[in-house]
Amino acid sequence: MRPNASLPGPPVAWVSILWSKRSLALSMDVLLWMSIVGGRLVARLDHQEEMMRKRGKKYVQAAALVDRSKAYEPEEAVALVKKVSYSQFDGSVEAHIRLGIDPRKADQQIRGTMILPHGTGKEVRVLVFAEGEAEKIAEEAGADYVGGAELVEKISNEGWVDFDVAIAIPSMMRMVGRLGRILGRRGLMPNPKSGTIVPQEELPRVLEEVRQGKVEYRNDKQGQVHVIIGRVSFSEKQLLDNLTALMDAIRRARPPAVRGTYIRNISISPSMGPGVKVDVPSAMQLKLAV
């Protein structure tokens, strides 16, 4: 390549000038990038400070007990989450797990059921869609509400959803299917993946599992899983046992298509109070007692 005649000096000087100009351009790009990132960081910090100012006094006092830069050991986390709860009622404790999945891909979806060793601490109201012999079996097994077409009509016409779990036998789904718009958005629609569509002979077993603390887990659109693991009144051991059972279920549910880090972040939080980060490697090592 020949130097432009309009540029003064020998080729070495010309290259030096061009390199200096390029370095200056790169420096300007770096400075611009730093100003943008720095501006975002400052804006984020300002937003956090603004949020803290909007929080109530009790929340601020509870948040002061949590080191936001630290990921706690599971035993420490369950002990701390009980301390930072400031509700006047027996609030729930919920686990939040951020997964390294692409929620847009069908082969990376997470969904399943599990039984918490100590339950959720909540009295569960169970509805069973059944008729004939199945209706009698469900009633004897302790279902709170049992029925067929009359329950479908009540939900469809009145929007009645005063129950926590809905179970159906396969033959009832021809009627229950039209309730998808009402039950689906509330996570109450019977589904084979959640084990809530079962033959009539399986109703006693399924109802017993629900009473014992059977919960469903599934990822949301952000690739996160949210599951209640107990109440604030639970002992530290009970919360730790339930968290251990959840981690075991999530580990087993890893889709083969997922590459890289599977579990990226874990936190637990009370109904009213700040969240507590949990150390991921330590949580991954939790094992159920045999």
What do these coordinates show?
The protein is of the alpha/beta class. It folds into 3 domains: 9-54; 67-121 and 214-290, Ribulose 1,5 Bisphosphate Carboxylase/Oxygenase; 125-212, 3-Layer(aba) Sandwich (Rossmann fold), CATH 3.40.50.790. The chain contains 10 helices and 9 strands. The protein has helices at residues 11-54, 57-63, 74-83, 133-140, 149-158, 173-176, 180-183, 203-212, 236-252, 280-284; strands at 92-99, 111-115, 126-129, 145-147, 165-168, 214-218, 224-231, 263-270, 276-278. The strands form 3 sheets. A 4-stranded antiparallel sheet has the order 7-1-8-9. Strands 4-3-5 form a 3-stranded parallel sheet, with helices on both faces. Strands 2-6 form a two-stranded antiparallel ribbon. Strand 8 and strand 9 (276-278) form a beta hairpin. The longest helix has 44 residues, at 11-54. The radius of gyration is 28 Å and the shape is globular. The N and C termini lie far apart (75 Å).
- What is the CATH domain class of the largest domain? Alpha Beta
Low-confidence stretches: none
How far apart the termini lie comes to 75 Å
CATH architecture of the largest domain: 2-Layer Sandwich
Look at the structure and give the mean pLDDT: 85
